[in-house]
Design brief:
By secondary structure, this protein is α/β, with parallel strands linked by helices. It is 35% helix and 24% strand. The protein folds into two domains: 119 residues, no CATH class; 262 residues, TIM Barrel, CATH 3.20.20.70. The structure holds iron/sulfur cluster.
Length: 392
């Protein structure tokens, strides 16, 4: 990746180093902090200021993260007023640096005030329904909303797509969506590393529709050669044959993310999760046999004290029955009880007590401890998936 550096000295700020990379522009004040990163369209992506990490979403919200006592990660969304002040400071610096260096490559950083940022967020909202969630390794994907919503939408703990009827887009509508996305991202599209077929269950679409979508994506020449990734419910994987999955793999499908949540059938039933543990195990086997990597998402803390032991034992057994290896990912996602969720009401009625964050972390540690990789020489990646840190 090519990197070019400029420097300027600003009164009241000091030395600012400017790194112009193929995908982003970084401003580094003094000894590299504070620092700000912008995409090539001039949108602030993130910043590091006074020990706090900031991420800005395309919807113009700003998430702050920092290390709290004992190194435990803390996070908070800035209020709209705080976000506006934070962004004003970032763009004031960008404006001054662009003026001082007079480098045409920094022109995209200029002219962003609160109204322009709000207008940009409105453009984003015109192209996309809210991007509710992505796996952590896909935060920099180019989201393609080939479907909207979740085809099931009844898990008691999940409100990602509540109120969004499931809808499969026609190829012509998808072509328009891609054109709109390309226009919205502009030169910043190069920051996107992969294509994520959204929303929750796009691969449930019939094969003929999937083929047509892949034709549209190929014709659009949008991120040519980029791998395709998507969520899928385990129960639905069997709706396609091994030959059909292999065909999708040949056309770029790289990894499928399965929200398995638990290896305990009783807990899955209580969560109203479709399918059983055996479906998850079989789904991973089927995908892997077709040459598609798998990611299995396990929720920690879900089911509270009532299901804790069976959740750990069942999940270890299920994961150990899967042929997971290099390129696959097991995610541990701490359960977050959403306000007004059905889960919360059912748990209260059943006397299921929530686990503390520490107890949920211990559950993750216990599951990790019990894992026996299918091939010890090529274990899957194990990683944390904190939905409170998702931002697109
Ligand atoms: S957890 Fe997945 S399958 Fe269940 S409602 Fe949410 S998106 Fe749909």
């Amino acid at each position: 990746m090519a990197t070019e550096a400029l420097r300027c000295d600003l009164p009241g700020v000091g030395r600012v180093a400017v790194r112009i990379r193929d995908m982003a522009i970084n401003l580094l004040v003094g000894n590299e902090a504070p620092s700000y990163s912008f995409d090539l369209a001039g949108r602030l992506i993130g910043a590091f200021v006074d020990g706090i990490n900031y991420r800005r979403g395309l919807d113009n919200r700003v998430l702050s993260k920092w290390a709290g006592p004992a190194g435990i990660r803390q996070r908070r969304w800035l209020t709209p007023t705080e976000a506006e002040a934070f962004l004003a400071a970032a763009y004031d610096l960008a404006e001054r640096v662009a003026a001082a260096t007079d480098d045409p490559r920094l022109t995209a950083l200029r002219g962003w005030d609160a109204a322009a940022l709000r207008a940009d967020a409105a453009r984003f909202a015109a192209v996309y329904r809210p991007v509710s969630i992505l796996p952590p390794d896909q935060y920099l994907a180019l989201v393609i909303q080939a479907t909207e919503g979740c085809s099931y939408n009844q898990c008691t703990f999940c409100d990602f797509y509540r109120g969004r009827p499931f809808r499969i887009k026609a190829p012509a509508e998808l072509a328009m969506h891609l054109a709109d996305a390309r226009a919205f991202f502009g030169p910043a599209i190069g920051l996107r590393k992969s294509l994520f077929l959204a929303d929750a269950n796009a691969l449930v679409a019939p094969m003929n529709r999937l083929r047509a979508w892949l034709d549209v994506i190929a014709e659009a020449q949008i991120l040519p050669g980029a791998g395709i990734y998507s969520f899928m419910d385990a129960f639905d994987v069997h709706r396609k044959s091994a030959a059909e999955w292999a065909e999708l793999a040949a056309r770029g499908l790289r990894r499928v993310y399965i929200g398995m949540e638990s290896g305990d059938d009783a807990l899955l039933r209580w969560l109203r999760k479709p399918g059983a543990v055996a479906d998850g195990v079989a789904a991973v086997r089927l995908l892997k046999s077709a040459g598609i990597a798998a990611s299995v998402i396990i929720m920690t803390g879900i089911g509270g004290d009532r299901y804790a032991e069976a959740h750990i034992c069942g999940t270890i057994a299920a994961l150990n029955a899967m042929p997971l290896g290099r390129g696959d990912i097991v995610y541990f996602s701490p359960f977050v009880d959403q306000p007004d969720s059905e889960y919360g009401r059912l748990a209260a009625a059943a006397g299921v007590r929530p686990l503390t964050e520490t107890a949920a972390a211990a559950q993750e540690a216990a599951i990790r401890h019990g894992l026996r990789p299918y091939d010890p020489a090529q274990p899957p990646q194990l990683s944390r998936y904190d939905i409170r840190e998702f931002i697109y």
